């Protein structure tokens, strides 16, 4: 499994990575669960502080706070990737509070006509990686501010 | 970092937050991060094979799909900005010239000649014989010859270029092939050569950009001069500035934009409608206030108070006491319509080329200008009745200003000291070092900088160092609002020798106090006035413009028009400070040409410096260098 790292010295804030991440998520949810209308949010978030553009992304921490804090054990580590199980997540938002990098976002989606709030984070494009494809944000980054580890 | 340097405005920004209204600062926050490809000018959207982006760090693509590299893309984008600025300024001038033509043909219903003396002087300057002609015939011919600058086929330079700069400068521009013959074709030329697959040489592109920018200058000369003929040449006038000029008990109408054709008529019809406004309950009658350059135009000629410069234009509506905003062209935020809809405020558009969804459109053609202006004022009075008293919050602060420093009014004033050679007192004081030099502040506000902060801080430091300041456009607005354009400011901020000169001039002008340390010369097209003054000085001294200790600065630059102005100012030989990097960072070559290579070709060049105090130091250094080169006292020599 490859992991991403981002160097803000090369980031131009074009949000190409955000767009790529969002489009993948949109395609997954549209194809697999056609009737589910889920708010799609990117899992890499580019912010600006003074003149610096900073792409914030999940570090897949070894001792992940989000994982440790989750009361329903919805967060697990698979092949070193920290992932959330949508069905187990109750949307309490504790992981969002706990992440030191601020890269978990809470989003709403509708299932069985009920609106449910769940946590959203980077899964390292596991589906793509299993097909030997690179994470999409990395592919999209025009300046290679994002690189693979 | 705050939003506005002028703290009195902050209460309205807070009010907007309470009322869930987004202002320019909020929209900016939501836009972050800004895309760096656009910021650096290396995003090309010229054809549909792209958009292409060049990686400035060298890892990704170094060429667009067509093969254009960063230098080509940056240069193409930059000169297109210049072309847009030139188009905006020069079409303003064209409207004025066409109106003068109608006045000359006696077909105009709404306009007349106010300054026939200036008209005659212009005719003389344009080599038009006035012998045996009446004022209308002269007007028609002046308009006709001016309009030729937009359409000339012959290769000789534009009349308003060749008659308004120093002979050596004209020669230099002609030698470079940038002394253009036709303003509009210079814009078309940029659009044509930047089409995919035409000009790829960055230097050739930049030269064409310079030629087009010189067209911007020419259009400004036409705008200023012919506006003076139609509406009068400004004379010193006392007025007030900042949001505090909006009156609680009046029907407040803001005029905003750039072209005085509209606002002059509004100001005219107001007098006859005062009674109607009082009958509607507005005990203070109708109160016209200015915003942006339309505001500057009516301030200089009519003494109309100035409510706001560019960045705080939305706040005029937030006061809850503005009945109408009447706009013409340029620098009008489309957001005004939405914000006006949260209040009783009416937004009126008046030009066929500038409509805004949500605004009411009353076109001010020559035939119906007065009639439509009356309708606008009538509807404003109606709106007053719908005002919600609970939503009113008018910041109290306003500062007194002395404005109206046209080249003519400055010369008239100086001629009281030396009627033979009116410029002599100014020259003498520059030579003896009482005035170290002159800085012309122009240009916009930019949301990336605390509004007016750079203007105010640079000015204070320059004044302290005995540098006289001229100002136009939203730069002038910044100084007006922040109490830097009155006699008190001279006493407070001017260095000793500058203060002495301004006090002496104030006496000559019949004031009991010194002249302001910053001369308000008008709107952004009135940068031509500052050039006229500099050209007169240079001609008197028999030197070229670049030798004068004069620097231009746009510390909060934003618009394409400002890029055009900066470029011609450099082309005329002036060092030009800008407070933000224009979108050229993606091409070190282009950036290098603008900040240094240009100097070898046209003497003028750009100085990019964000920090206002640092910028002021750099300008002072340049001025002292120029003084040393002229062999007059310079601190550089003292250092040696
Ligand atoms: S979401 Fe935050 S805490 Fe959890 S693994 Fe990623 S970076 Fe670590
Ligand atoms: S929001 Fe979901 S994943 Fe996050 S801590 Fe709560 S239950 Fe766990
Ligand atoms: S794609 Fe690359 S350059 Fe663009 S915002 Fe993301 S990390 Fe920055
Ligand atoms: S003109 Fe060239 S660089 Fe520009 S979008 Fe087209 S292919 Fe790309």
From TrEMBL, chain B:
Names of the cofactor(s): [4Fe-4S] cluster
Top EC class, one word: oxidoreductase
Residues reported to bind [4Fe-4S] cluster 1: 35, 43
Reaction equations catalysed: CO + 2 oxidized [2Fe-2S]-[ferredoxin] + H2O = 2 reduced [2Fe-2S]-[ferredoxin] + CO2 + 2 H(+)
InterPro entries (alphabetical): CO_DH_a-bundle, CODH, HCP/CODH, Prismane-like_a/b-sand, Prismane-like_sf
Keyword entries, A-Z: 4Fe-4S, Iron, Iron-sulfur, Metal-binding, Nickel, Oxidoreductase
Binding residues for [4Fe-4S] cluster 2: 44, 47, 52, 66
One GO biological process term: generation of precursor metabolites and energy
GO molecular function annotations of the record: 4 iron, 4 sulfur cluster binding; anaerobic carbon-monoxide dehydrogenase activity; hydroxylamine reductase activity; nickel cation binding; peroxidase activity
Positions annotated to bind [Ni-4Fe-4S] cluster: 258, 293, 331, 444, 474, 524
Pfam families reported for this sequence: Prismane
CDD domains given in the database record: CODH
EC number assigned by the record: 1.2.7.4
Xref: PANTHER family: CARBON MONOXIDE DEHYDROGENASE, HYDROXYLAMINE REDUCTASE
Protein name per Swiss-Prot or TrEMBL: Carbon monoxide dehydrogenase
């Amino acid at each position: 499994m490859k992991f991403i790292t981002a160097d803000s010295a090369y980031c131009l804030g074009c949000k190409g990575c955000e767009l790529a991440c969002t489009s993948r998520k949109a395609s997954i949810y549209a194809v697999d669960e056609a009737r589910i209308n889920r708010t799609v949010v990117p899992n890499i978030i580019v912010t600006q502080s003074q003149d610096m553009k900073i792409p914030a992304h999940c570090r897949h921490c070894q001792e992940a706070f989000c994982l440790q804090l989750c009361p329903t054990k919805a967060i697990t580590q698979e092949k070193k990737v920290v992932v959330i199980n949508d069905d187990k997540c109750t949307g309490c938002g504790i992981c969002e509070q706990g992440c030191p990098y601020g890269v978990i976002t809470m989003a709403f989606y509708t299932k069985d006509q009920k609106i449910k709030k769940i946590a959203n984070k980077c899964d390292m494009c596991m589906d793509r990686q299993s097909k030997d494809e690179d994470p999409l944000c990395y592919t999209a980054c025009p300046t290679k501010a994002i690189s693979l580890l | 970092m705050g939003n506005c340097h002028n703290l009195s405005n902050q209460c309205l920004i807070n009010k907007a937050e309470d009322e869930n209204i987004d202002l320019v600062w909020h929209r900016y926050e939501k836009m972050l991060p800004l895309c760096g490809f656009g910021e650096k000018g290396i995003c090309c959207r010229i054809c549909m094979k792209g958009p292409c982006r060049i990686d400035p760090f060298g890892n990704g693509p170094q060429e667009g799909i067509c093969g254009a590299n960063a230098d080509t893309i940056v240069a193409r984008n930059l000169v297109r900005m210049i072309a847009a600025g030139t188009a905006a300024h020069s079409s303003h001038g064209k409207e004025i010239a066409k109106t003068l033509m109608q006045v000359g043909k006696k077909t105009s219903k709404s306009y007349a000649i106010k300054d026939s003396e200036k008209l005659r002087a212009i005719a003389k300057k344009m080599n038009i014989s006035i012998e045996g002609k009446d004022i209308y015939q002269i007007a028609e011919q002046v308009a006709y010859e001016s309009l030729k600058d937009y359409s000339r086929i012959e290769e000789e330079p534009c009349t308003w270029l060749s008659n308004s700069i120093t002979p050596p400068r004209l020669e230099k521009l002609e030698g470079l092939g940038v002394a253009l013959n036709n303003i509009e074709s210079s814009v078309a030329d940029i659009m044509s050569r930047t089409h995919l697959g035409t000009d790829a040489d960055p230097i050739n592109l930049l030269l064409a950009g310079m030629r087009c920018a010189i067209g911007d200058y020419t259009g400004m000369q036409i705008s200023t001069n012919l506006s003076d003929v139609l509406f009068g040449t400004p004379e010193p006038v006392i007025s007030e500035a900042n949001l505090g000029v909006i009156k609680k008990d009046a029907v407040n109408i803001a005029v905003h934009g750039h072209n005085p054709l509209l606002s002059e008529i509004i100001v005219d019809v107001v007098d006859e409608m005062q009674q109607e406004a009082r009958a509607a309950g507005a005990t203070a009658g109708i109160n016209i206030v200015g915003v942006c350059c339309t505001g500057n135009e009516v301030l200089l000629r009519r003494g109309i108070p100035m409510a706001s410069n560019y960045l705080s234009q939305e706040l005029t509506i937030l006061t809850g006491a503005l009945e109408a905003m009447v706009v013409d062209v340029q620098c009008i935020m489309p957001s005004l319509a939405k914000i006006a809809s949260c209040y009783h405020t009416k937004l009126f558009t008046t030009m066929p080329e500038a409509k805004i969804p949500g605004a009411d459109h009353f076109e001010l053609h020559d035939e119906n200008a007065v009639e439509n202006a009356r309708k606008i004022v009538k509807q404003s009075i109606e709106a007053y009745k719908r005002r919600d008293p609970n939503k009113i919050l008018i910041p109290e602060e306003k500062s007194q200003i002395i404005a109206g420093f046209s080249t003519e009014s400055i010369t008239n004033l100086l001629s009281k000291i030396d009627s033979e050679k009116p410029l002599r007192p100014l020259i003498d004081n520059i030579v003896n070092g009482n005035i170290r030099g002159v800085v012309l502040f122009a240009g916009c506000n930019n949301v990336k900088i605390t509004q007016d902060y750079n203007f105010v801080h640079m000015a204070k430091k320059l004044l302290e160092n005995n540098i006289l300041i001229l100002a136009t456009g939203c730069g002038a607005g910044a100084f007006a609002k922040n109490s830097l354009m009155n006699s008190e400011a001279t006493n407070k901020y001017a260095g000793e020798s500058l203060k002495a000169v301004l006090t002496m001039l104030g006496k000559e002008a019949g004031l009991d106090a010194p002249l302001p340390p910053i001369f308000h010369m008008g709107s952004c097209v009135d940068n031509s006035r500052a050039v006229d003054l500099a050209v007169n000085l240079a001609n008197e001294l028999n030197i070229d413009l670049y030798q004068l200790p004069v620097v231009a600065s746009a510390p909060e630059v934003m618009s394409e028009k400002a890029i055009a102005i900066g470029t011609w100012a450099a082309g005329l030989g002036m060092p030009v400070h800008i407070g933000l990097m224009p979108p050229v960072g993606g091409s070190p070559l282009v950036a290098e040409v603008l900040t240094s290579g240009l100097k070898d070709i046209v003497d003028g060049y750009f100085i990019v410096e964000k920090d206002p105090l640092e910028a002021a130091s750099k300008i002072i250094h340049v001025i002292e260098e120029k003084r040393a080169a002229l062999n007059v006292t310079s601190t550089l020599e003292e250092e040696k």
